[in-house]
Specification:
218 residues, alpha/beta, 21% strand
Length: 218
């Protein structure tokens, strides 16, 4: 869908995951993996297993296990880390995913989850929730996990730029129309300005999304 421009979300998400890449080692389960966009962050000797509800994405086979994020097909205490990016908003019962992640993690293992704080409706009708940092932390605690950190993906200015760039109208416009090229240029300009201003006038009252880092107790 052409309207999607997620630069102001994707850039801080990758930076945050890169900062915490040391947690993604050993046997890692990527839940809702899609094309496994963050597999490159893991060390070469990491065993990275993708689980999703389908076996093929974008013409590539990236899914090793087929199953539900709310009932993971993995034995208890089997994995060193669980990562899930932009998935839990699409789960009817996200608290079940957190319980499942806690179940399959070994003691001392880590859960890394990202989710939107504010975003347009997408993958309809399977778009159920938006998450504050407090909501994500509570879901983790309710599952028996220790919350180590919740990292915001930008501040209020980044969020305004994120939504503005995305909602530049395209209705009724051909993909090859000059307006579409102009729109992409405008999006790049908005992203650059919002990123610049967000870094200088940072406000954590709002954000595009959050990354939760939690740990199963020893």
């Amino acid at each position: 869908m052409d309207r999607v421009d997620t630069t102001l979300f994707d850039r801080p998400l990758r930076a945050t995951l890169t900062e915490h890449r040391h947690l993604l080692s050993g046997l890692v389960l990527d839940v809702g993996c899609g094309s496994q966009p963050y597999r490159d962050l893991a060390a070469p000797d990491t065993r990275w297993i993708g689980v999703d509800f389908a076996v093929a994405w974008s013409g590539r086979t990236e899914v090793q296990l087929v199953g539900s994020a709310e009932a993971l097909p993995v034995r208890s205490g089997a994995v060193d880390a669980v990562i899930s990016t932009q998935v839990i908003e699409h789960l009817p019962h996200p608290w079940l995913f957190f319980s499942e992640a806690a179940r399959i993690l070994r003691p001392g293992g880590h859960l890394v989850v990202s989710a939107p704080h504010a975003q347009w409706l997408h993958e309809e009708p399977h778009d159920y929730y938006r998450f504050t940092k407090y909501g994500m932390a509570q879901l983790a605690r309710d599952a028996g996990l220790e919350v180590k950190d919740v990292v915001p993906l930008g501040g209020a200015v980044a969020l305004m730029g994120f939504l503005t760039a995305t909602h530049i109208p395209t209705r009724g416009v051909s993909p090859r129309h000059l307006w579409m090229r102009t729109r992409r240029l405008l999006q790049r300009m908005i992203n650059a300005m919002a990123g610049f201003l967000d870094a200088r006038f940072y406000s954590q009252s709002d954000t595009t999304g959050n990354v939760l880092i939690a740990r199963r107790p020893e």
